[in-house]
Amino acid sequence: MSYVSLLRQRPVLILWLAETLSVFGDRFFTLALAWTAWQKSGAVAMGLVVVVESVPHLLIGTFGRKLVARFASFRALAAVEAVQVLVVGAMPWLWQSIGLTGVLVVIVLIGTCDAITGPSLSALIPGMVNKDQVRQVTGLMDVSNRLTWFLGPGSAAVLLAFLPAQKLFLVDAATFAVSALAFAWLGRTAAPLLASTASPTGEKGVADVAAPKALFVLRAHPRIGGALLVGGIGEFFSTVLTIGIPIWLTSQLHAGAGAYAVVLSAMGIGAVAGNLLTGNVALPGRFPSGYCLVWSARGLLLAAFAFSSTLPQVVVIAAAASALVPLTSICLNAEIGGLPGPERLRLFAVDSVKVHVASMSSMLLLPALLERAPRMSFAVGGALTAVAGLVAWAVARMRRPTPAEAMEYAELVRR
Q1: DSSP-derived secondary structure letter, 213
Q2: CA gap 359, 51 in Å, rounded
Q3: Closest to 150 measured CA to CA, from 239, 274, 312
Q4: Residue 319 and residue 271: Cα distance in Å, rounded?
Q5: How far apart are CA 224 and CA 297, in angstroms?
Q6: Digit-coded pLDDT (tens) for 243-301
Q7: How many CB atoms lie within 10 A of CB 276?
Q8: CA 81, 82, 85, 87 torsion-angle sign
Q9: How far is residue 59 from each of residues 26, 108, 263, 353, 356, measured CA to CA in Å?
C-alpha cells in the first residue's frame, strides 16, 4: 500500500497532517530557544541546552515505564499537548526577563512532555492500521521528519525575515494546539493502546502487563535488543557527520556557507528519497540481518568522507549516506511496531533512551576530536560503525531462530 492510499484513511490523514505541523513547530522552537541561549550566555549555553534536553528522556525512559503507560492513549496525549501550548505560548512575554536558568526550566518541561509523547505516539500509530500496513504507516510518519529537517531551517529563515525570533514560539504553540485537537478527535475513535491481556513476557500483575520491564521485553525479543545496540553505536558516531561536515568543508576544502547549504540540500533530498523507497520495500532477509548490513554501509560512507577532496564528492557521499538513514529508522520502528501494545510501548521508550544517550555522549566527547583531527574522526568513526554492523550481522546469522521467530518470518514471507 502506498502513502497516498494510507492518507485516504481519515484518522491517518489527520494524524499525519498534525504531526507534520508539530515537527515543523519543533524546528522553530529549537531555533528560537538556541538563539535565546546564545544571546543570554553565549555558545557554551547552546551546548548545555542539548544536554539538558536529553535528561527527561533518560530519566523517564529508564525509570518512568508506568508513567509512560498512563499516557498511552490519544486523549491523554491531547492533554500533554495542551500543557505545551501554555508553556511555549508564554515565551514571547517572558522573553525579556527570562535568564539562562529560565531557558533550562522550559527545556526540561518541554523535554518531559516529549519524553512521554514520543514513545506513546510511536506505539499508538501501528494500531491505526492492519498488521501488513505497519511498515508503510511507519514510513509515512517518518517522512515528516525528513521533510522538516530539509525544509524546516529554510522556513524558519523566511519567518525570521518578517518576525523577531521570539515570535517563533507562537508558531510552535499553534502547532501544539493543532496536535491537541487532532489527538482529542482521534481519542474518540481509537482504542487505548494497553488492553487487559496476559503479558507475553510472563510477568504477573496488572501494572507489569501494562508496563513491562525493559529487561523482560528485550529477553523475549533478542533480535531487537541486538539491533538497538548496533543502532546506539551507529547513532553515537553519526555526530561525526552532523558536526564534521562544516568543519571538513572549511578546514579541508576551504569552502564557505554556500557549500554547506548545497551539502545540506543534498542530504535532505537523499533522506526523502530513501524514505520513499524504504516505506514500501522491506529489507531482504530476516531481521536484523539487513538492518545490520545497512549500518555497515553507513559506516563505510562515513569513512569515505576522509578521502573526499572536492565539493561534488562530499555532496555525493552525503546524499548516499542520508538515503540510508530512513532504512535503519523505518526498519527498526516497523519491527517494534509489530509487537503487542505494551511491549512496543516499552521498546519505543528504550529506543528513545538509546538515541539520547548516544546523542548526548557524542556531543560531549566528539566535537573536540573533530576540531583537532577531522580526517581521523571520519575514518575511525566510520570504520567502527561498519565493524559493529558486520559483527552483529554475523551473530544474527549464527543464532538459530526460536520456533516463534521462525513462524513469524514464514508469515512475513507469505505476505
Answers
A1: -
A2: 9
A3: 274
A4: 7
A5: 19
A6: 899 889 988 898 887 888 889 889 989 999 999 888 666 666 678 889 999 999 999 99
A7: 17
A8: negative
A9: 21, 11, 35, 8, 11
